[in-house]
Amino acid sequence: MWSLLNSKTFKALSTTPRLWRRTVTTQSLIYRKFGQPSNELQIIEEDVPNPIGKQVLIKILRAPVNRMDLDIIQGSVFIVPYLGHNFFEISLLGTHPFKPKILPAIGGGEFVGEVVKVGELVVDLNEGDLVIPLRMHLGSWTKYKLAEKEEVYKIPEYSDLKEAATIGANTCAAYRLLKGFVNLRPGDSIIQNGANGFVGQTIHKLCKLWGIKSLGVIRDRPDAGVLKLAMERLGATVVLTDKEIDTTDVYKANCLQKPKLALNCTGGEMAESIARHLDKCGIMVTYAGVSGKPFKISALSSLILNEQRFTGFWITKWVEENLGSPHHVRMMNELIRLLQANKLKTPPLEIIPFDDFKEAFATCDSTSKRFMLDMTADEDVKWIGEGLCPLVPLGPCSNFGGKKEVKKSGKK
């Protein structure tokens, strides 16, 4: 395959001379204190040393912006963020009433990148390989990064960049929510609120693939009908608004069995609504609290008479505790297979050039619009067909499955 390092025209690239020095210069999006991302994020240049031992140097190609990334910058999630290229620590501080003080930090948690150099002890990764992170919150909003081999996962070379870049957090969370609490079989039902969110949409898709029926709950809104149709096209069996859920007759009409699993990301009244629909001995899992409101459950009805269980889940904690385990590897392998078969498409998001981050984050602060940073937008090489072809030099592209032409950056 063509890659940044094995191309015969490598010397023509602007970044080329740097890769043969002791360090490479990268641009990173950092924050020095907690606050609104649009106010706190700034671009800095820093040197990244060449990899040694089991380290790999990665050229970041795409990096999404997730809700968790923004929460960390705002200081509402207690994670010690990625500190730089010579030090990594993640601390799961739970609900401790303090915030991490180790700043500045590089933002971002997910990416897809190309290995451009490996340490002398790395034997199963090569220059040109595509990788995604196994660990979360490594600091992905940067053009080059140094990582340990065990922290990244090799993916097939023809992977779509946008899809690959979003597997690590939300897609893995959806997978674990469906696999980790109830032994769901084809024909079983689940119920979830926040059904139109990233995780919610992925849950609907996975349910359809696995023969599980899903009931989604969304907030009532003027365009609820349009949103319902969109969710049903993704795989939802039934979608109801929060005003319709308490009067539904889908169970009486034999459309659905009572759900064995309820998935809550909102809290408040919507959490209470889906809890009332749980089957006897069912489990409700809370993985987020978007509304910031608590919810009540009936000790007599839910806990005593129906023997229901209520628990929580955090994908970051699960990954740290299961890094490289058979469960972790099996999940990644299965998700990659679905991605390769084009059965797991990411929800719509806008690709934004890395240098245009200020405008993008200003939009993100005020809306629910999702976007992804493109670290290669200003370079003389482009990925073809949005990730279906590896990096190629300017000129005709070999038949990798992407488009035939190369989009030039405008540089001369």
UniProtKB/TrEMBL annotation:
One of its GO terms (biological process) is fatty acid biosynthetic process. Residues 35-373 form the Enoyl reductase (ER) domain. It is an enzyme of class 1 (oxidoreductase). Pfam families: ADH_N (PF08240), ADH_zinc_N_2 (PF13602). It is found in: Mitochondrion. Keywords: Fatty acid biosynthesis, Fatty acid metabolism, Lipid biosynthesis, Lipid metabolism, Mitochondrion, NADP, Oxidoreductase, Transit peptide. Its EC number is 1.3.1.104. One of its GO terms (cellular component) is mitochondrion. Its main location: mitochondrion. It catalyses: a 2,3-saturated acyl-[ACP] + NADP(+) = a (2E)-enoyl-[ACP] + NADPH + H(+). It comes from the Eukaryota. Belongs to the zinc-containing alcohol dehydrogenase family. Quinone oxidoreductase subfamily. This is Enoyl-[acyl-carrier-protein] reductase, mitochondrial.
